[in-house]
Amino acid sequence: MISLDLHVQPISTGGGAPPYLSPNGWDALPHPPLDEAGYAVEEFRVSGTARLYRNARGSLGASEPYATRILAIHPRNDANFSGVVHIELFNPSTGSDFPMFWPDAGYHLMERGDAYLGITCKSVTIADLRQRDPERYASLSFPHDSAIWDMLGAVAATTHLPAAGGLLPGLRTPSRRFATGWSQSGSFLRTYLSERLHEQHSAALGKSAPAGPSGAPIIDGYLIGVSSGGFGPMGYVELERDGEMSLDESFAPAGALAGVVPIDDRRRTITRPPVPVIEYHSEDEAQHHLWHARPDSDLPGDSYRCYPVPGRGHEPGLLPTAARRSEQGLGDVPDTELNADDSPRNEGSKWLIATTVSHLVAWSDGVAPPRADPIPFEVPRGFERDPEGVDYSGIEPVRDNDGHAIGGLRSLEIDLPLAFMRVVPSERHIMPAWEHVPFTRAEADARYGGPDGYRNSARRRAAELVDTGWLLPEHAELAVLSACARYPEDDDLN
After folding, report:
1. Given the DSSP bridges, would you call strands 302-309 and 277-282 parallel, antiparallel or unpaired?
2. What φ, ψ does residue 320 adopt, rounded to 5°?
3. pLDDT tens, residue by residue, 223-270
4. Which end of the chain is more exposed for a tag (fewer CB within 10 A), N or C?
5. How much of the chain exceeds pLDDT 70, in percent?
6. Distances (CA, A) of 467 to 360, 374, 463, 470
7. Contact (CB, 8 A) for 221 and 227
8. Residue 12: pLDDT above 70?
9. What is the 3-state secondary structure (H, E, C) of the chain?
10. Is the separation of the CB atoms in 251 and 392 below 8 Å?
11. Looking at domain 7-364, does it have CATH number 3.30.429.10?
12. pTM of the prediction?
């Protein structure tokens, strides 16, 4: 029996301390301060019961209670609310909650007047919260990681109620809701769709008056970020998986892969999604996903796009590592131990993700988004696929004269580069570090004729990107100014 009931209770601020991961507590903000933008941030304890998949191959056990927390960021006034809410499953791969969507997308979500719900979704991150603040988070508990599936359905169902059942105080019933997950959390959504849990929960929603009208989807669309179905150990998270998978320093599984879905299993490729789905890949995921790629589609019952982004790797684009370390209390931990070296910020990601979000929302209204060319790859003769889905070394993208991959979503960073963006050579095959090697002033001047020439070229190219759907009109001049700010000042810039 599926239960979509959810009990919502505000979490005490504990003497004024902000919720863990509140942007108000970050050292560096990739968007205007929440108060200035008319936004509030609140934290809630949410509890319910979930069916648990404790046995092999998704065998259902009894339902058990769970309690987790949600970070809500939303307009203070209903007049400024767009009616759209985005639900992010916090990434748990560091052992602590990590928002990979909000830092890049928050600027645009606040522009739109959208609301945001970030969910702690795994046992390891609940344990981390309890350790960080035993008093504040003492009542949180996850009996088994497979509680995530019905928990996601219950949170989504609650957004069909006025004020999202208390998660969005003072706001009307959301008109649409979109789920997003990035990296491991993106793989959670791949499982959720491929195991047809979306359909199960939509059917349960239709039967549970007044939660939702009959026939309404539980979620109106999905944005799956930097997650590849071809990454063996984490590209598909089995329904019954519980606990942390042990990986070595190269991100290969340390030990047997018992129970892991085989690399050629059809569920690793999203097929027949009942609502729009966009997979947003960096160049890294595009490489790993090569054998799991599928055509874009606008067919009824199969609305799908894949948007690969050249020139960037797996790490998120805008939240500096220092801000994450400060928030997580990891200021003295070496970067090498965090797998969180200060990889370059991809400013262009901000505009590409904004465009992708706008396309997804419009698609839920029946407006199909543009299609992106895939990033083409060269596969060496005699290449044999790693059965564990980890080692893709030797497969290289087709590159332009600057060494950047062709195809994919285009941006000023790639089309009018001021730096060479490349993978740092290493023995690591999964999620390698990237570096940006800035042009010298002489190199930039030789190519663009100086800052004025670059600015003129950037404005022309921005207009073309607007026409092709890869840059929103309201962001064109901002993107140009951001690109021009990176023009080298002198020949000593290296």
Report:
1. parallel
2. -60, 145
3. 999 999 999 888 999 999 998 877 666 666 665 555 688 999 999 999
4. N
5. 88
6. 18, 19, 6, 8
7. no
8. yes
9. CCCCCCEEEECCCCCCCCCCCCHHHCCCCCCCCCCCCCEEEEEEEEEEEEECCCEHHHECCCEEEEEEEEEEEEECCHHHCCCEEEEEECECCCCCCECCCHHHHHHHHHHHCCEEEEECCCHHHHHHHHHHCHHHHCCCECCCCCHHHHHHHHHHHHCCCHHHHHCCCCCCCCCEEEEEEECHHHHHHHHHHHCCHHHHHHHHHHHCCCCCCCCCCCCCEEEEECCCCCCCCCCCCCCCCCCCCCECCCCCECCCCCCCCCCCCHHHCCCCCCCCEEEEEEHHHHHHCHHHCCCCEEECCEEEEEEEECCCCCCCCCCCHHHHHHHHCCCCCCHHHHCCCCCCCCHHHHHHHHHHHHHHHHHHCCCCCCCCCCCCEECCCCCCCCCCCCCCCCCEECECCCCCECCCCCCHHHHCCCEEEEECCCCCCCCCCEEEEECCHHHHHHHHCCHHHHHHHHHHHHHHHHHHCCCCHHHHHHHHHHHHCCCCCCCCCC
10. no
11. no
12. 0.93
pLDDT at 56 over 90: no
Provide the token pair at 368.
């199909």
Site of tokens 């419009």: 362
pLDDT digits (tens, 9 = 90+) for 400-432: 999 999 999 999 999 999 999 988 887 776 778
Per domain, the residue ranges of the chain are: 7-364
Predicted confidence (pLDDT) at residue 329 exceeds the cutoff of 60: no
